[in-house]
Amino acid sequence: MSEQAKILAEMQEIIMTILKNGSASAAEGDRIDELEAMLHQQKCYQEIDHAEHEYQGEEIASLFFNDHTMEAIDKMCECEITPDDFFGFIEYHDEDEEFTEMFTDAFIADVTKVYHSKCKS
Question: What is the pLDDT of residue 98?
């Protein structure tokens, strides 16, 4: 499990506890803030110089969305972003759920297969 996956899993666990209890403790709030700061240090959140995208993961998502799948996978390889980390980024970052219909289980499986055949992980 990558560092990003561990961060997201811990955040999910805390959020589920908060939902169960109906409110967040100060410690839970502080930990979420720490985890979000750690999350923004991950490769998908690397800030880029781009007119439309703030983060590397957003640029890759746009490439997939605009049917530039191989270019997106090449960018993932170049930036050493694994499919698990990229799709975890999307799940967390895609507040408007614009990629939900596109990134199906079959799509994710196909991208993962191509990624592993092209990239030296």
Answer: 77
